User: What shape does this take?
Amino acid sequence: MSITLAKPIKNGRILIVDDNPRNIQVLGNILKENQYLVEFATSGAGALEWIGVQCFDLILLDIVLPDMNGFQVCEKIRAKYDLDSLPVIFLSAHNDTNNVHYGFKIGAQDFITKPFNRGDLLMRVRTHILLKKNIDKLKYLNETLEQKVEERTRALNLAKEAAERNDRLKTIFLQNLSHEIRTPLNGIFGFTQLLKLNLEEKENYIHYIEMIEHSGEHMLSMINDLVILSKIESGQNIDICIEEVDLNEMLDEIILTFQPRIKDKGLKLFKRVKIPDGFMFETDKEKIFQVFMNLINNAIKYTPSGYIEIKICYFDSKIEFSVKDTGVGIPKNMHKVIFERFVQGKTYHNRPFEGSGVGLSISKALIEALGGEIWVESEPEKGAIFKFSLS
Assistant: This one.
């Protein structure tokens, strides 16, 4: 009956340790014919040196060596490599029971007797190399799995922290919003009552009506912010309507809108325009107008005294817009955070300011929808410059 040998493990690397050149030649030829990669050592020290510089899948180790015996070599191997990392097969004519038992005791996986049977040798070599490679593969998969689990765990923890932070910020936002809505409502109801009680004092009507109008505009602005915010939160695209815009004329409209508030607070408002005469810029005027409204509102809010400057410059085929103030400023570590949703001024200033905390977040979303970018340059107590650019 003929026996078909199993296919060898291609590229399995084997170290033969034997002091007999003839044994090395015969054994090496058999292994090379079966596509194994073979190195050899004629002493225990030589074998340990090879193992220190090369990775092997199997050691074929004789017991009798010139400098130390095979058992001592095996013990030194096991001091550094476990059974799974580097298999050892003793290949020796000294096959009495004591030697075989001792070989297994100190960490050999197998014992082959000289003279060996070619088929038996190849089957055992294949079995131990295959087992070693499968164990290596399992170790790799296990390490990869552990790494993926760690990465996934870190990602989940970051997501959990972000969700918890978002919930906290939303709570702050809703508390602020509740207060902010009450403020214009109280103004509307309060001045309506004053109008009823002072029907004969007509000279006060205009003042009362202006205050009602201001409260209504304040409330409408918050509602508009909430509409845009709801689109951002739900992942909807922001509608863009491109038209030719006279930027100089737009700034005049903005200044006219804010002049009463600027005057009431005792601030000064400057305009600087560095664009070619008659220059028309294609953009969404309503979105740019809203961004300026949000930035100037912030500037007024956080500037107790001094001035606010709005500026437009044209260079390198880009338009750069900016709103500069002489207010309380912003710490460097908050320069990116303030553009996140629900982050309100009092989270980085120890003083009460109005605001729902979504204006800058909405401004960032609008500018990015227009293909631009927005940022801030500021230091505490040195004012702030909010800039955005479009091309």
Remarks:
- The chain is about 50% helix and 15% strand.
- Confidence is low (pLDDT under 50) at residues 345-356.
- The two ends are 84 Å apart (CA to CA).
- The longest helix spans residues 118-197.
